[in-house]
Amino acid sequence: MKKLLILLSVLNLLSLDGRSPNFVVIFCDDFGYGDLGCFGNPTIKTPNLDRMASQGQKWTQFYVADPVCTPSRAALLTGRYPIRNGMTSGERVVLFPDSAGGLPASEITIAEVLKEKDYATAAIGKWHLGHLPQYLPMEHGFDSYYGIPYSNDMDFVKGVPNYRKGVGNPNFYPDIKNYNVPLLENLDVIERPAEQNTMTQRCTLKAVDFIEENKDKPFFLYLAHSMPHIPLFVSEEFRGKSARGLYGDVLEEIDWGVGEILKAIKDEGIEKDTIVVFTTDNGPWLAFKTHGGSAGPLRAGKGTTFEGGQRVPTIFWGPGRVKPGTVSEMGSTLDLLPTFAALAGTKTPADRKMDGYDLSPVLSGEGKSPRDTFYYWARARLHAVRSGPWKLHVLQREPINYGRLAPMEGPELYHLEADISEAYDVAKTHPEIVARLLRTIKAHELDTEDSLPDQLAARIK
Ligand code: MG
What we know:
Layout: H1 2-17, E1 22-28, H2 47-55, E2 57-63, H3 69-78, H4 82-85, H5 110-115, E3 120-125, E4 144-147, H6 163-166, E5 183-185, E6 188-191, H7 199-213, E7 219-224, H8 246-267, E8 274-280, H9 307-310, E9 314-317, E10 325-332, H10 336-344, H11 360-363, E11 373-378, E12 381-387, E13 390-393, E14 412-415, H12 431-447, H13 453-457
Parallel strand pairs: 1-7, 1-8, 2-10, 3-4, 3-7
Antiparallel strand pairs: 2-9, 4-5, 5-6, 8-9, 11-12, 12-13, 13-14
Helix pairs in contact: 2-8, 7-8
């Protein structure tokens, strides 16, 4: 018994003294649940992601907190619903180049939480949480920044052909000069318009450089690719290669980039100390036809609170720290902050309401996901709730023109395990579940009413 206690205390010390893991989040823009080989796509080739999934955990029920760019990003970085962190829809849906606001300084990001443990931090790619200096990544815990400050379709030049009209033509390829988006290095504009054809490639190489430079200390790398958000751009090496067309070319280049990042991690010998998460900020933008992605079996896409808008294909990879397998329990980007904090041996902010859970027991294979409920927000309004397999909608948006609410006769209830496509409303045959979930929705609305004044003032304008 005494020997066992000594052994346990030694093991405990070893884990306390062990290196805090590195975290890499690869966060893409607008791809769908059905766009990766490992999630069933038959024509887009994603061998690196498929290998990453087979060596790690494939999460099939993972959610983003909002179905559009700005609020989804704010939720990932803060572990809080946009209604709490200020990046909820106000006069507009997302931030634009003429927006005056951004993520409030009072919010605490993953980068700031990990700074408590002296992590090196970098943000690379699309930011979209405020382009003015006081809102850029270096004001939110990141040591450096390289990327575009908002969506790649913004700053479009007036009078250029409507992108939407071109997407029916298989030979259509956009011109970077029509989108006067700046490329920033830290606080400086280093290129305008950004050379978007090589953006995926250049952001990948920046990420590899950061990994190589910081291999000897814990680091957090947030790589937010601006693709495959329209207008689609890809480097020469990948153009015209995919059977799926330009959209497939773009995803295959992202897949190449994932391969380069995992290779760098292995080459530096830090694969046992690194956890990589790959996912996307919202579902596919269906209005853009073949230039948008596929939600696979899920209903609708970007901008909606159907599963196609908010359930995102997600992979966790980390040899030695992530037990391989398929996880069919619930998780969310809201959970990354508490999960990383737990694994790094630091704390989540205690002075505010948080919406995430620590998923580390699932990653190690030692426990179940603590998340059994998920709230679907869009445009500052609570649209639906999921509790276990049941999902109740009280508001819905139109699938293509998601700016409009869709008419409903009453709350709709779906059993997501039996009906992944939300095709069969069973509200009438399960009134007791409808009543319970209506109470859950009411309680969450009351819980989110007391958002701080500066967060409410920060609403997207
Ligand atoms: Mg997006």
